[in-house]
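Table S2 (text version). Query chain:
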Amino acid sequence: MGQKITIIKHPLLRHKLGHLRDKNTNSNDFREITKEISKILAYEAMREWDQMEPVAIETPIAKTTIERMINPPVVVSILRAGNGMLDAVLSMLPIASAGFIGIYRDKFIHNTVEYYFKMPENIKGKEILLCDPLVATSDTIVAAIDRLKQYEVGKIKVLCLIASKIGLEKLHFFHPDVEVFTLNVEEEINEVGYLVPGLGDAGDRLFQTK
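Corresponding structure-token output:
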């Protein structure tokens, strides 16, 4: 397994992940818990950020100098499930812009198909926070990273709720420089590509489309 993996371990996160795994958790609760976890993933992914500038301000008491972030990352959602994470990550990074990649694995041609790609202008050199709740086979996320690198973006960090061991191995085989932030690494995927024990199809559970 690649070395650029941060597994965030915390009792509150284990508790929330347990609710996501439960098939009886309704769609609204699934969305809200996904948002809560996504904020923490964004927090961890930005822990080492060092692009800051000093700004002179006045508090109610005195003049002082504070720090403000500059050159923020671009938050990219892999449609459609990534949209369940997007608003939460942007709430942590309100000065960030957002991009969207529509991509899926076609079971008939056994390859990924891109149907939508929209990025902010001037993303060359920009750090990317790539959001997708699940990394199972990793076919779609590898294809998404391939496309982003065509635009010569900067460092790419993947934010996901859970990922498979085999998916992460494949991701880091093709993109060893990419960092992954997740809550858990699952040992198995089943014959149709779902994580085991997993939490089902995140898109369906987020948007009630099953």
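Notes on Table S2: Residues 5-207 form a domain with the Rossmann fold fold (CATH 3.40.50.2020). Residues 27-45 form the longest helix (19 residues).
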